[in-house]
Amino acid sequence: MSHQDNRFEIAHLARAELLTPVPEKTEWFFTELLGMYVTKREGQSVYLRSYEDPYQWSLKITEAPSAGLGHLGVRTTSAAALDRRADALKADSVNLSWGENEFGYGKTLHFQTPDGHGVSAFWEVEKYVAPPALQSKILTRPSRKPLKGVPVKRLDHINLMASDITPVRRSFERHLGYRTTESVLNGNVEVGAWMTTNLLGHEIATMRDSTGARGRLHHLAFFYGSLQHNTDAAEMFREYDIEIEVGPDIHGITQGAFLYVMEPGGNRIELFGNTGILHLDPDADTKVWDFNDFDVGLAIGGAKLPPTYFTYGTGGTLSAEAQADLSRLASV
Ligand SMILES: [Fe+2]
């Protein structure tokens, strides 16, 4: 199967697991401010879904010593597509394992990106069926819009920091059939790539981690699809002491309307206030931005992204240099 033929093997980003040292506060952020429903509690984890997420959960919050990404999960377009993706990983000698131990999901393939992010892929899912009290009158909506905070509709995308993004991008392209819609070059070093398998501008992005750390999370994004909701959410976050990093504004890259905040556990969360560009052209070229001239790429409205945007991430493994820096600071 050629790379072109791999294109429709992954349907979409279905779920992600966030680690947090303050699980009750993180749960409060997602349920009370973003209106997500809890569907199950088990051990040190709680499972949540937004009102238009189709399956039992799109977000798993797990208590851990520090913040970070547990894993991201993508749904294939068929059972055969899942087997073909496993074959593609095996052909490149990528370590993989199979499991069937997550609430609401069946047979699942587990592996890591070349930078160490956990990835799961699956076909079998348990569709969410709302109890009568939560049923929506809008038939395409799996549950009623909640009366809490400014509720998000669904999981949208994830952005992974990587010590070297090129092998991460290549793995998503070669093994899972993603196409790269936009990228950023600094000289001849790739510093950003935005990837999709469907019409959305991106579902997976990866950006260079300038600290040299491996496998960190940059952000997890949830969908509003309305610019006004990003403004409403910004007001809510100010009122309830949630740190806003930057926004609302619109990235030139993906044309995505952004608002970045830190949930109480420390993970960066993005609220996505429009649909962004849709990729209807199946063989469009990758659009390449120049890192040294991409103010428009960062923010069409001129918002200045703070230095933390390029250096702060959660989880992963720090480089030896970064660890030495931290121990120097600790000994001062
Ligand atoms: Fe994003």
Automatic annotation (TrEMBL):
InterPro entries per record: Glyas_Bleomycin-R_OHBP_Dase, Glyas_Fos-R_dOase_dom, VOC_core
Occurrences of domain VOC (ranges): 9-124, 154-274
UniProt keyword Transmembrane helix, yes or no: no
Keyword Oxidoreductase among record annotations: yes
Annotated keywords: Dioxygenase, Oxidoreductase
Domain of life: Bacteria
GO molecular function ontology, one term from the record: dioxygenase activity
Pfam families the record matches: Glyoxalase (PF00903)
Record's protein name: Catechol 2,3-dioxygenase
Organism: Lampropedia hyalina DSM 16112
